[in-house]
């Protein structure tokens, strides 16, 4: 496995590696340590981790990986050494940034390559702040990144995507054999909802409230402005309502200002990022999990982990009409869908779950069944194991 970032943590990389180890494979993971504080080699849960420590400045050049050659030139020698020393039999690339380096090196080794697309990087780059800076506009081209993505999808032996919607997108956009694609969503392992510790301080704090919970990155494209503005509608019908936001981003001050401007300090708790081990406590303290993402190609073709996390504890979800997450809510009858950025529609869906107790109970039961029988990692990782048969 080749990862262009540090490890740990990376839940997707770890889940995939552990599943393949369980299936009988030996996994070597090449990753990057810009901090220069981690061990060059160590064994983590059976994963043989090999780290390189590039100059810190190289991190800046990762944003230019398909615009300038510097980033890829640096990694070629260490990748070659890694492949020679480990005598690996197959390469699994995690995401787009380092793909060019690996494909170039593999001209020598001619090993089978699986290209694991964690997201639609060229599309999501359009929303990154650094691509909108003056220098970013001059140097960074999402079109060049997309060209690289398509090139290596075609060159790869197998391609992993997060959702069926992503597979449909690439098959529609490119002349590529659909059988090349394998769908391996991010989801929760069963231990997330069977083996956890409760923090009583959290569950007691929200006892007596009707709580809407958001977990994860709070960047503006995640739609929290919609959820905050809707609170003015909702407090009229649900006096004990509370919106709890667990996460952070660079744009948090914009959201906090919005809370203050609307005098919602008593109705919105912005608690910042919390330890992952506390997530079950926040979920159990909530009534509904929300995921109000803005619609775009990236959000239409990916899942947010938060929807699976909430569903695993029987919490119905309210999601915007991004294709992939809308399909989960509808197909498994475990949540309601609102039109992206429509405050009134969002408010109406919250009120529907609040007022219709039978509907809430049905969706809560469906949520747990969906996770336990269809949507947990142990089930969804089956396609991954098909790629590497023993």
Short description:
This protein has 20 helices and 14 strands. It is α/β, with parallel strands linked by helices and 390 residues long.
Structural summary, described in words:
By secondary structure, this protein is an alpha/beta fold. 46% of the residues lie in helices and 15% in strands. It has 20 helices and 14 strands. It has helices at residues 11-22, 57-61, 70-86, 99-109, 121-125, 134-139, 142-155, 164-173, 190-194, 200-205, 224-234, 252-261, 279-284, 297-300, 305-311, 323-331, 343-355, 357-375, 377-380, 382-387; strands at residues 2-3, 28-32, 41-44, 47-52, 91-94, 113-116, 158-161, 181-183, 210-215, 241-246, 268-270, 288-291, 317-320, 335-338. The chain has a 6-stranded parallel β-sheet, sandwiched between helices. Strand 13 (317-320), helix 16 (323-331) and strand 14 form a beta-alpha-beta unit. Helix 3 packs across helix 4 (99-109) and helix 11 crosses helix 17. The mean pLDDT is 95.
Task: Name its key features.
20 helices; 15% strand; alpha/beta; six-stranded parallel β-sheet; five-stranded parallel β-sheet; 390 residues
How is this fold's topology laid out?
Blueprint: E1 2-3, H1 11-22, E2 28-32, E3 41-44, E4 47-52, H2 57-61, H3 70-86, E5 91-94, H4 99-109, E6 113-116, H5 121-125, H6 134-139, H7 142-155, E7 158-161, H8 164-173, E8 181-183, H9 190-194, H10 200-205, E9 210-215, H11 224-234, E10 241-246, H12 252-261, E11 268-270, H13 279-284, E12 288-291, H14 297-300, H15 305-311, E13 317-320, H16 323-331, E14 335-338, H17 343-355, H18 357-375, H19 377-380, H20 382-387
Parallel strand pairs: 1-5, 2-4, 5-6, 6-7, 7-8, 9-10, 9-12, 10-11, 12-13, 13-14
Antiparallel strand pairs: 3-4
């Amino acid at each position: 496995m080749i990862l262009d970032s540090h490890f740990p943590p990376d839940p997707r990389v770890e889940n995939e590696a552990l599943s393949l180890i369980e299936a009988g494979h030996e996994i070597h993971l090449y990753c990057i340590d810009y901090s220069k504080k981690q061990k060059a080699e160590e064994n983590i849960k059976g994963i043989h981790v090999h780290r390189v420590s590039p100059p810190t400045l190289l991190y800046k050049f990762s944003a230019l990986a398909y615009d300038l050659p510097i980033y890829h030139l640096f990694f070629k020698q260490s990748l070659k050494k890694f492949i020679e020393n480990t005598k690996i039999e197959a390469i699994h690339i995690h995401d787009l940034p380092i793909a060019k380096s690996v494909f170039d090196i593999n001209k020598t080794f001619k090993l089978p390559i699986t290209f694991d697309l964690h997201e639609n990087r060229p599309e999501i780059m359009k929303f990154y702040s650094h691509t909108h800076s003056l220098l970013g506009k001059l140097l960074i081209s999402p079109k060049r990144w997309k060209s690289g993505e398509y090139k290596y999808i075609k060159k790869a032996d197998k391609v992993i995507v997060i959702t069926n919607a992503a597979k449909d997108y690439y098959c529609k956009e490119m002349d590529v054999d659909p059988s090349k694609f394998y769908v391996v969503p991010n989801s929760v392992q069963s231990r997330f909802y069977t083996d956890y510790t409760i923090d009583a301080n959290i569950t007691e704090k929200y006892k007596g409230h009707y709580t809407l919970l958001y977990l994860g990155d709070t960047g503006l494209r995640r739609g929290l402005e919609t959820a905050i503005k809707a609170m003015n509608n909702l407090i009229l019908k649900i006096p004990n309502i509370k919106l709890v936001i667990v996460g952070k981003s660079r744009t948090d001050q914009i959201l906090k200002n919005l809370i203050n401007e609307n005098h919602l300090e008593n109705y919105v708790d912005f608690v910042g990022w919390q330890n992952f081990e506390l997530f079950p406590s926040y979920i159990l303290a909530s009534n509904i999990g929300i995921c109000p993402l803005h619609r775009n190609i990236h959000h239409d073709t990916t899942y947010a982990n938060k929807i699976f996390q909430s569903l695993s504890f029987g919490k119905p979800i309210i999601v915007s009409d991004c294709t992939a997450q809308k399909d989960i809510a509808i197909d498994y009858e475990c949540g309601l869908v609102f039109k992206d950025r429509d405050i009134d529609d969002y408010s109406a869906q919250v009120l529907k779950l609040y007022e219709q107790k039978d509907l809430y109970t049905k969706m809560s039961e469906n949520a747990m069944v969906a996770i336990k029988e269809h949507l947990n990692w142990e089930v969804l990782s089956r396609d991954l194991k098909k790629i590497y048969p023993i």
